[in-house]
Amino acid sequence: MYTGKRVILASQSPRRKQLLEQAGIPFEVKVVDTAETFPADMAIPEVPVHIARQKSAAVAALCTAEDIIITADTVVVLDDTIIGKPKDREDAIRILSALSGRIHRVITGVVIKREQQELAFSKETAVHFKPLTTEQITYYVDTYKPYDKAGAYAIQEWIGAVGIDRIDGCFYNVMGLPVSNVVEALESIAAENN
Ligand SMILES: Cc1cn([C@H]2C[C@H](O)[C@@H](COP(=O)(O)OP(=O)(O)OP(=O)(O)O)O2)c(=O)[nH]c1=O
């Protein structure tokens, strides 16, 4: 069990909160709005950590020096292009049509910060979508309204159960937090500080 310093999860994502709770980590949530930007020439695997670092810097002012701050960012990558959150219904339908029958990558970057120390890593999961029908896509978008989800879907919802037949990597990473790696990192920080 984790017995280290106060943990702050700087995220508005209910999924990240759920996953950290599931892992038995006591924590508080603090939310800040951050512009999620990255240089156009940045290599895609580096982008999620870069954005998580921006979130971390934005929340630091609200925390004490002792606090351990966790931030994360999840991107969906198809054909070397980052697909963000859908702008609207049409965009969600377009994105899911593009993912249908294909394999894409989901990369979550995590930054764990305490005082001047920073631990940053990212994890990748390959996700294989079965071919989806137009009916399935419109049903999902209209019922689940996945506008706050990278790639316009959530693996933990209906579409994950019926439309995804295999993944290679961590399931929770697709949901937004590679939680076993986060726990491991917190335990190593706690051990260093004891
Ligand atoms: C691909 C996928 C994404 N998601 C979610 C995880 C993230 O919440 C969201 C990606 O957006 P993010 O920008 O990573 O996170 P967020 O805006 O929700 O929260 P914050 O920046 O405050 O931490 O998509 C799922 O829940 N399931 C999935 O299968």
TrEMBL record:
Entry annotated with the keyword Repressor: no
Keywords annotated in UniProt: Cytoplasm, Hydrolase, Nucleotide metabolism
Active-site residue numbers: 73
Keyword hit for Cytoplasm: yes
Site feature location: Important for substrate specificity: 15, 74, 156
Cofactor annotation: a divalent metal cation
Entry's localization field: Cytoplasm
Predominant location: cytoplasm
Record-listed E.C. numbers: 3.6.1.9
Reactions that this protein is recorded to catalyse: UTP + H2O = UMP + diphosphate + H(+); dTTP + H2O = dTMP + diphosphate + H(+)
InterPro entries in the record: ITPase-like_fam, Maf-like
Domain of life: Bacteria
Gene3D superfamilies to which the protein is assigned, alphabetical: 3.90.950.10
Pfam family, one: Maf
PANTHER family: BIFUNCTIONAL DTTP/UTP PYROPHOSPHATASE/METHYLTRANSFERASE PROTEIN-RELATED, BIFUNCTIONAL DTTP_UTP PYROPHOSPHATASE_METHYLTRANSFERASE PROTEIN-RELATED
Function (record text): Nucleoside triphosphate pyrophosphatase that hydrolyzes dTTP and UTP. May have a dual role in cell division arrest and in preventing the incorporation of modified nucleotides into cellular nucleic acids.
Family membership: Belongs to the Maf family. YhdE subfamily.
Protein name per Swiss-Prot or TrEMBL: dTTP/UTP pyrophosphatase
Organism expressing this protein natively: Chitinophaga filiformis (Myxococcus filiformis)
